[in-house]
Each structure stands twice: as structure tokens, then as C-alpha cells.
Amino acid sequence: MVSPDALPRQFAGQQAHFEGKQQALLPRHGALNLKLKSLRRRISVANGHGQMLPRTCRTGAAPMSSPFSFSAASNADAMLQKPVVRCKLIPMPELPDIAAYISALEPRIVGQPLERIRLASAFLLRTAQPTLLSVEGRVVRELRRIGKRIVIGLDNDLWLALHLMIAGRLHWRAPGAKLAGRQSLAAFDFPAGSLLLTEAGTKRRASLHLFKGEQSLSSIDPGGIDIFASDLDSFRVALTNENHTLKRALTDPRLLSGIGNAYSDEILHAAQLSPIALTHKLEPDEWGRLFSAARRTLELWIGRLRTEAEVGFPEKVTAFRKDMAVHGRYGQPCPRCGDKVLRIRYADKETNYCARCQTNGKVLADRSLSRLLGSDWPRTLEELEALKRR
Q1: Which among 156, 305, 347, 381 counts the fewest CB atoms within 10 Å?
Q2: Distance between CA atoms of 249 and 96, rounded to whole angstroms?
Q3: pTM for the complete prediction?
């Protein structure tokens, strides 16, 4: 039997025990509370109240305006006109970026021996044979592009294929530069300097393949045509192989080589075509506009980025550039008509377009919000402006 004098000590011990348990559960409890709050906000939007927190934003971050994020009627104008916070979108290097990298690397490494490859992450290398030791001391003979990969050709018919994926970037450093930090994945050492590969974030998507012979190298080619090596007929045949939206067709590596989310937006804006127009429904004059816009847009940006690469190695590769017409310019004026650039958000991607120039004034549906708002979703720019004036 516990004595009366011992009871306070016993209860004090139990209290400390349970307080410790409570503190241990607080992080989890807090995360659950945040999820519940997010869910309540979504439910309140469906009932006509509150404001939506998109799934693409991090838990606990301020709500971000989608193309048309709504609060109560009194705050609709503020929510429609100004995004509260943007979720971070990391662009993948595309054809102009890869061309700039190759232009910067050619005078630095072609004709030079690859002294050593240092790996900080074993997951980067995706092939077992030949081994990396077989390339040490081999002289670089050429550089080429396959899709969005940079291919380094060495003596003895050896080929290094580097795919930067979304967050991979290249940096030129002094010879023997250290692999410092968690973002550093590999170093390619040459007499004049070291080529470092880094990848932001925690997901390791970048890859390195080593092949023996061009036949083996061709296994990584997805098969898309080169826009500069094709004519209008072959371009149309490739994109009409299946009936897809123009946005999907332009970014499909099996159809076109090297074009991604950013430059497809620019191409479609230049051609004044809707990103959701179907390839099987395009008129002959529209095909001509699309083909010309694709070549003209890519030539423009390849020239600009190569010029920049002549000044210094391209350290800050990004698809969000201030001189772009629509990509990454949501809410800013279209350079052609002055209307605000709109967007469609899906997963971690974003399509930017001008409704006046590309869709005859029709506001394209956003997957999540248009389903949520149903008949309240504005179909035209006029309906959107009327909603803002409420």
C-alpha cells in the first residue's frame, strides 16, 4: 500500500511521464491538425466559404492562388488578382539549355583526356559494363545531344550519356574541385578543370550511362524527330501518329526531341494555338504556323543561350526567363495583346497561355478548381472580368 506521503511523488512522476508522452506526440499531432485544417478549407470552398489550399503547396504554407482561387464573395477580387504565394516549380533543362551546355563544354573538354570520374552517389550510375575505370585517360572526341541528354564521345567507341532530369545542373570548377554538400553527385576531372554535377532536392533522378558502341548508345534514344532536321510533312506525320493535345504532342520525347514544358508554351503562344487543341483537328494553315513557330522559337533561344555561354559557363540554367512571352509569367501582361497570362496547374507542372491570343477568349479549365466550382467556373474572359467586378 502506498503511503499518503508517497502519493504526491507518485502523481508527480505520472504527470511527468504523460507530459513527456504528450511532447513526443506534438509533432505528429500538429501535422494532423494542419491536414485537418486543409481539409476543412477545401470543404468550406465547396459550401461557398473560405479559401482553397492547393495540394501542390506544402502543408502549412500560405494558400496559393490557382488560375482562379476563390474566397467569400467580398474577397473574390483580391484572390483573383493577386496570388498569395507561389509553389516552387523546378524546370527541366530542354533543347536550348542542353545546346548551351554543349557549346560551353566543347572548347573546354573536346580533345582533352578524361582523367577520372568521381562519384558521390552510387545511384547516379545506371550501367555496370563497361566500368568507369575504362574511360580514365580516354580523350574526348565529340559532344552530342540525344533528347535531353548530353552525350560525351571518347576514344575506343565509349559513350557517356548524362541526363540532368529536373533538378540536375552542371558547373565548371578548378581542377580537382571537391564534391562538397549533399547536392554534389559526381565530378569529371580534366586537365583544365572539373565538371561537377549537382542535383537539388532529395529525389535523385539524374542518371549517368556508359555505353560501348553507337548501337548500344541508340538504346536510350526515345525516337523523337529533330525539329531542325525535319520538314513540315514529317513534322505533321510525327505529331498526328496519335490524337493528342498539342501540349502533350510537343512534349512527348517519342515524337519530338528535346522540347519540354517551358518551350512548348512559348511555341504555342507564337503559333497562336490552344494547348488543348487536338492534333487530328488542326487545319493545314495551323500546321504551318506551328512548325514555323517551333523552329523560330527554338532558334531564338538557342542563339541567346549560346551567346551567354560564350561569356561564361552557364551556371544558372532555368526555364523561367524574363524575356519569355508566357511561360512562368502568370498574371503578367501578354506581350502581344496585353491581357493577363493564365495558367493550368496539374501535379507539379504548369501550362501558361494567353486566352485572347490562343483560345479565342476561352478560359481553359483547371482540373481541380473547375470540377470543384462546376457551373461557377468562368468560361470566358468576359465572365472572369464580371466575377472580378462583384
Answers
A1: 347
A2: 18
A3: 0.72
